[in-house]
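Sequence in, structure out. Go.
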Amino acid sequence: MYTLDARRDRDGGEIYRTGAGFRYPLAKDKTGGYKVRSGEMLRVCMTSDFFLPEADVWRDEAWEMMRLRPDVRFFLLTKRVARVADCLPANWGDGWENVMLNVSAENQRRADERVPLLLELPFKHKGVMCAPLIGPVSLSPWLGEGKLEQVLADGENYDGARPCRYEWVRRLREECEASDVTFVFCGTGRRFIKDGRLYKLDEPGVGSLQAHKSGLSFQGRPIAWRLFDAWGQPLSADVYVPYFREKCRVCGMRPICNGCSRCGKCGEPTEE
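Output:
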């Protein structure tokens, strides 16, 4: 995050609400339909932490937005899992069907701290993100409980990146496969060690390509999302089909990607 902060004109240590606020998931197009379509996944607050104390004054509004879009999946990630129980909305019950909570676990110490707390929380969907993976992690004590639905792993991708090792990723893959839990090797990071050799992968996209080529990702049992329209009627599981370009075929992130938005920023045609 320090690298990203250096590109902005505002101190990254300052916690503030962006100008867009929480309107995006509720924004509509010219026809009156939502711009974010039913079945899409939105990753919430990925450059900060949804459960920061400084965000307490805004969080209820964000929860309300998620409640108003029961047809959209929301992915939450936190390091502050100990705060989560006190930050849930009053009408949360035993969890909302369209919200997944993930904890980050970059090494075994953090996994031991955070995963047990995650498993105690009332969420319908739970996962672990081992990113940046800077030390060996074993999740086998918890994978067999059937409460974790996915595990993601990635190396470190910014200045001063610490190395990620092939054997760490391989171990996570094997543990997930043994419990039929989806494992996604998103990227190697900028520094990756395999068979004793250090690979420097500084060019954008190379780490993701190499992760794909490794074949370490594993598709486990499907996540049973239950989505509903505004009238409470259930939606079919395939209501949203992601669109991928040819280059997406070899991206390590593809198994968990929401697809191309066809914004045109990459220079490719927005429609085919």
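Check: The chain has six helices and nine strands. The longest helix spans residues 56-68.
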